[in-house]
């Protein structure tokens, strides 16, 4: 009797667990708003080559921009249905908190303080970076540890100020920070010679050097003094939109891992690989659990290409920045980009 009762209880628990897993997602407030206005509102950097910047016709491009395009394609079926809101470092978090933007995709470092105190959730890591220094070659400085007594330009409202202070203290260097509210002012002061070095994320240094009138006159020093995992943020309190934003990024990473490109997506729809079938929606419907249809990941990948294509086009070998993939390679190719499986 006890054995039969126990068996029925176990079967009931298993059935309930299966039912919970299979429940479709309820649309959250943010998703409802995006669908109602038929547009995603995305906060981006005012101008950072390779991540978010505009051309002479006002067309946005960059890694952070491409993520917004992929997200819009997944939700609205059109990568062009995005309104880009340019924000400086001081404006970005307030814009997200106030609801001015749906998502912040603006080279923002994931830290404990930001994660715990801003009322926002980091979606994931779009780019593993680290803070470095740039100097003019004419100064003949080969290492950041030679900056004793130097004035270093940087931007306020970022993680770079504290990192600079920590680096100087740890290495017993007398470094004088010259801090500006806007990045353009910081780089302008560096270019004019008001400071001997400029410090920000290494990708940002490469971006600034690439748009300099004399890029060959500048050198990025070898030291990386911090961990800067950069990624998008969404407001807390809307788990549905958080899940969608997170899994669109994961889809771009999984596309890179499985070799799904803009060019071969339609061909790959006939693949026998169950992992590819789930990503492209040709077998199980993975979109229902997110409140989307089964081709949500297919549309994201078709709009922008996979993560590797986004990287190479904007900051890698096919861009003026020529950055190496490094840590941003997939886990199975020597990097640490590792997405949870779509299954």
TrEMBL record:
Transmembrane segments: none annotated. The keyword Signal applies. Coiled coil: none annotated. Pfam families: SBP_bac_3 (PF00497). InterPro entries: Bact_solute-bind_prot3, Solute-binding_3/MltF_N. Keywords: Signal, Transport. Gene3D superfamilies: Periplasmic binding protein-like II. Belongs to the bacterial solute-binding protein 3 family. This is Amino acid ABC transporter substrate-binding protein. It comes from Thiothrix lacustris.
């Amino acid at each position: 009797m006890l054995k039969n009762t126990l068996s029925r209880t176990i079967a009931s628990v298993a059935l309930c667990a299966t039912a919970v897993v299979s429940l479709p997602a309820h649309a959250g407030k943010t998703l409802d708003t995006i669908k109602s206005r038929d547009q995603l509102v995305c906060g981006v950097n005012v101008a950072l080559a390779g991540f978010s910047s505009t051309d002479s016709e006002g067309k946005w491009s960059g890694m952070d921009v491409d993520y917004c395009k992929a997200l819009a394609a997944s939700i609205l079926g059109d990568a062009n249905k995005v309104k880009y809101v340019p924000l400086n470092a001081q404006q970005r978090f307030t814009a997200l908190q106030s609801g001015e933007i749906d998502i912040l995709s603006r080279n923002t470092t994931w830290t404990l303080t930001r994660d715990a105190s801003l009322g926002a959730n980091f979606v994931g890591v779009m780019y593993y970076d680290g803070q470095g220094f740039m100097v003019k070659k004419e100064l003949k400085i080969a290492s950041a540890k030679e900056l004793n007594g130097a004035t270093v330009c940087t931007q306020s409202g970022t993680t770079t100020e504290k990192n600079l202070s920590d680096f100087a203290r740890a290495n017993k260097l007398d470094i004088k920070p010259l801090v500006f509210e806007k990045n353009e002012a910081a780089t302008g002061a560096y270019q004019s010679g008001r400071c001997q070095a400029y410090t920000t994320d290494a990708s940002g240094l490469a971006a600034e050097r690439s748009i300099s009138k004399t890029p060959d006159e500048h050198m990025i020093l070898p030291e990386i003094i911090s961990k800067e995992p950069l990624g998008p943020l969404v407001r807390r309190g809307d788990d549905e939109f958080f899940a969608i934003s997170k899994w669109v990024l994961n889809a771009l990473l999984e596309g890179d891992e499985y070799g799904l490109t803009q060019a071969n997506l339609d061909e790959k729809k006939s693949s026998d690989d169950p992992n590819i079938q789930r990503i492209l929606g040709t077998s199980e419907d993975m979109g229902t659990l997110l409140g989307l249809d089964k081709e949500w990941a297919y549309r994201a990948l078709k709009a922008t290409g996979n993560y590797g294509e986004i990287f190479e086009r904007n900051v890698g070998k096919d861009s003026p920045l020529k950055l190496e993939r490094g840590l941003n390679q997939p886990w199975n190719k020597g990097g640490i980009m590792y997405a949870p499986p779509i299954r």
